[in-house]
Specification:
By secondary structure, the protein is mostly helical. The protein has 3 helices and no strands.
């Protein structure tokens, strides 16, 4: 297995994005932006479903769907936190080995 140098880690962290993100400077920021977009989209779904329930569509099926969307938000949030923490920790470890 080849070793990664400090210069390579620095290069990866500071590499300009491919233009997909707004003002991101690295792939790590791009990943964080992607997680943020997923969380925003899920929050929008929850708000829409909650508005339906508040608007009188409060059948058990609708409430169950709202609960499912809320649990999906929890899953996405936990996955986001875990992946960002893990990658950050791995990058920190790489930087220390140099």
């Amino acid at each position: 297995m080849s070793e990664i140098t400090t210069a390579q880690v620095t290069s990866m962290l500071s590499a300009n994005s491919t233009g997909r993100g707004k003002n991101s400077n690295s792939w790590f920021e791009e990943m964080a932006d992607a997680w943020g977009s997923a969380l925003n989209a899920q929050a929008t779904r929850i708000v829409e479903k909650a508005d339906e329930v508040a608007g009188g569509f409060d059948t058990p099926a609708e409430i169950t769907e709202l609960t499912a969307e809320s649990l999906r938000m929890n899953f996405i949030s936990n996955s986001s936190h875990t992946s960002l923490t893990s990658v950050g920790s791995a990058l920190e470890t790489l930087a220390r080995k140099q």
